[in-house]
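I am still getting used to backbone structure tokens and would like to learn alongside you. To get us started, please write out a protein record for me. Once you have written the record down, we can walk along the chain together.
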Amino acid sequence: MKPSARMFPQTATIQAATETVVDGAVTETWADLTDHVDLPAQLAQPMRQGEREIESPDGTRVEIDRYLYLQDYKPLVTEKMRAICKGVTFDIEWSDTDSHETYTRCALRLVR
């Protein structure tokens, strides 16, 4: 069963970094991931102060600011990417999906 559009009232764009080295200096350039622009999304409310440190699926502890839910299974969305939602840029700390692959959940940290 596919979730309704009301569950994903916002949109998000996923970006991946490309590193280039010029004169020994590494520069990251962010570009939209193909077919991952304006995806139906739901940006959750900010995490409360005492709830920000969580355990990722691989068992490591990470500090996050919010969760982002993307409609459908998005296997290309991984850590080290960025999500832009509501004009705000976040680093993706990790992502996973539900057992029915109806959505992808991303743990986000605000880019400061």
